[in-house]
Amino acid sequence: GNVIFTGVLGATKPLGNGTGAAINIGAGSGPVEFQSDITSRSGLFQSASAGKVTFGGSILSGETKTPAVATELLGDLVFMDDSYQFGLGAVLGSGGANQTSVEFNGGNVVLQSALGSIQINGELSGVANLTVTSPTRVAVATAIGTATPLGGLAITSPTIVLAGIGQTGQAGITGNATLTATNLALGGSYYQVDGLFAISTKGTTSYSGDIGGPGTVRFNGPGTLALDGNLSLSGALLVPAGHLVFNGSVGAPTTISGGTLSGNGTFGNLTLATGQAQPGNSPGRITTTNYVQGAGTLTVEVSGRTAGITYDQLVASTVTLGGKLSVVMGAGFKPAIGEVFIIIDNTGINPVLGRFQGLPDRARFTIGTTTFTIRYNKGDGNDVTLESVFNPPPATGPKVANPFSLNGPGALALAVGNTGTIQINSGRNISQVFRPFVGYVGPLSVACMDRNADGRADALVIGAGVGQSHVIVVDAATGRIAASFLAYAPGFTGGVNVAAGVMRINGGLIPVIVTGAGAGALPNLAVFNYNGSVRLRSYLTFQPGFRGGISVACGDTNNDGSMEIIVGSGKGPAPHVVVFDAVTSTMKASFFAFPRSYTGGVYVASGELDPTSPGCEVIVGTNASPIPKVSIFSSTGQLLKTFSGFSGPFAGGVRPAVSDFVPGGNVEVVVVNGPQARVHLRVFRFDNFALLDSFFSGSTDNTLGAIVANNPFRLPD
């Protein structure tokens, strides 16, 4: 029958040989109720009772040293008090075919073991806020709270083993749950904690089931938690520490605030406040509706050419950036120049907001032997991309100049008459004059060069005008010679005219040098790589009988990112201008810049003057004419504008160029006179030819004129 203990129960000696329980309730016993506290210094008891055992008071059971034994309670159990201490641990309830229940219905209940493990085989439920601690192991063999949800749960033990919390759509814990372990095993297929579900583990825990309910999941680390199921949460997913590997989906807001996120998961709103996000499982893809990066670091691995498979990608409908970008190159992978990697696929219609720390649009950085440029408006117009770009070796040749700048308002470079010198101007002021060829006195040609193909002039290419075909490249940052070569055979004495641009080869933009043969030689055009070591193209631009020399310029006239080559005829025939495709060498346009009766030759330049019409225009100036005319043409040879470079008659000619001389973002037309007058520079606005500046430069005794370096290097879209 029923057995009820109303007073305090104490037991000091074990049964049998000293290792048994102080109290043993046999299998045939009926319900037993303990209404007061129980104290046993040598293990509580062993119970196989088929009836319910109710504990109305507290329990203090077992010595904290051997030979005391663990408590074993196999029937249905009800714990009504707030303190249950088992010296060498406890086994509560039965599982399997004889499933029993274990209920904790007190307020804030503490279940603890001093030395042993706690194994709960029965169905754990009740309304209490339950705290369980063990120095070795806590295991719950069945899903928690399926009968009656617990009010709360906190388990602390080196090893924790669970079989689920609640059941699909039903909470197993109505309040908060905290799991703190070195090794954590999450079994079962569903967990639902309606409050905060906080997980802390030092090891690696993997769980492939689902987590649901209105609560919030917080992973505190410091180990790794791998989740492969779906999180149908109404609260949030928080990662303040540790490493969360997430390959499922979660609609609730996710915030990384010190931890690391990786995997191929799908998120609603993902905020990388601090910590790291690493798409994929080396590599892979993270997908989210809205991505906000604060002070955290987005790390992407580039090991191949396929997004989400061999290089990491983040996909989002809105993107707000901050913090850092870290790029890791896969072992053995080397992208080709021009290869583009879409690291953030912005699937929405809005532009990317913000930038990665230290990486403005078009910034360059080098990882190992690969240099990337980052763009925030590429792909389909609003993606974040990395493009593998050309990175030239440093200039190590002789120093021929002090460092100088070719960018910004007022930056000009001039080849001064027959002096064999180059003059660097900052606006009206002469910064320096240097002699690029030791001992050479004579005419030079000069052009600005984009040596690393980043859209900005960073070097000068200079050609000797007569007696040889020597070409050098002078690095602006160091003043050192970066390249030196002969454009034509050693016996060639006609001099060279030079230009520079970027040419798309095998998908990548490569800086190139263009040379045109001077007067007395065949009208040969040659294209060289960035240091002149490889002749990429060589062909005649006019009929072989023409010996008047050719002037050359480079410009992206069709706005495809790769240059065209513009060639102007020297003295002798009609003023012929031809435009060639730099890659295929095919003729794209052919026209006469001035009346065919004019035979004084022309100088050519190119640059994007009209921002409303994509592509570079062709600028042509008369070499020797009573009227120093300048005409501007479209890429197909359509005359757009014409004007006089200088007022009044002047037979010395006019040499045009483009440069961003005046602040405002658009390049201007810059002209300088040829021989017979002091060097005179004039700057014109394209749309209305308003004279923006006009000044003399250099010595008053110098009446040999000059050539101004063309600087067409507008940053590409």
What's a concise summary of this model?
By secondary structure, this protein is mostly beta strands. Helices cover 0% and strands 49% of the residues.
Task: Describe the protein in words.
The protein is mainly beta. It has no helices and 64 strands. It has a 26-stranded mixed beta sheet that branches. Strands 3-6-9-12-15-18-20-22 form an eight-stranded parallel beta sheet, with no helix packed on it. A hairpin with a 2-residue loop joins β38 (364-367) and β39 (370-378).
What class do helices, strands and sheet pairing give? mainly beta
N-C termini distance? 90 Å
**What gross morphology would you assign?**
rod-shaped
Tally of contiguous helical segments:
0
Helix content: under 10%
* Amount of beta strand: over 45%
Q: What does the main sheet amount to?
A: 26 strands, mixed
Please tally the β strands and state the result.
Answer: 64
Mean pLDDT: 89
Rg from Cα: 41 Å
- List low-pLDDT spans: 11-21, 64-68
Layout: helices, strands, pairs:
Layout: E1 3-5, E2 9-11, E3 23-25, E4 32-34, E5 38-40, E6 45-47, E7 53-55, E8 59-61, E9 71-73, E10 77-79, E11 83-86, E12 90-92, E13 101-104, E14 108-113, E15 118-120, E16 123-125, E17 129-133, E18 137-140, E19 152-156, E20 159-162, E21 177-181, E22 183-186, E23 190-192, E24 196-207, E25 210-213, E26 216-227, E27 230-233, E28 237-239, E29 243-246, E30 249-250, E31 254-263, E32 266-279, E33 285-293, E34 297-302, E35 313-320, E36 324-329, E37 340-346, E38 364-367, E39 370-378, E40 383-389, E41 411-416, E42 421-426, E43 429-434, E44 444-449, E45 459-464, E46 470-475, E47 481-486, E48 496-505, E49 508-517, E50 524-528, E51 535-540, E52 550-555, E53 564-569, E54 576-581, E55 587-592, E56 602-607, E57 617-622, E58 629-633, E59 639-644, E60 654-659, E61 668-673, E62 680-684, E63 691-696, E64 706-708
Parallel strand pairs: 1-4, 2-5, 3-6, 4-7, 5-8, 6-9, 7-10, 8-11, 9-12, 10-13, 11-14, 12-15, 13-16, 14-17, 15-18, 17-19, 18-20, 19-21, 20-22, 21-24, 23-25, 24-26, 25-27, 26-28, 26-29, 27-30, 28-31, 29-31, 30-32, 31-32, 32-33, 32-34, 33-35, 34-36, 35-37
Antiparallel strand pairs: 37-40, 38-39, 39-40, 41-42, 41-64, 42-43, 44-45, 45-46, 46-47, 48-49, 49-50, 50-51, 52-53, 53-54, 54-55, 56-57, 57-58, 58-59, 60-61, 61-62, 62-63
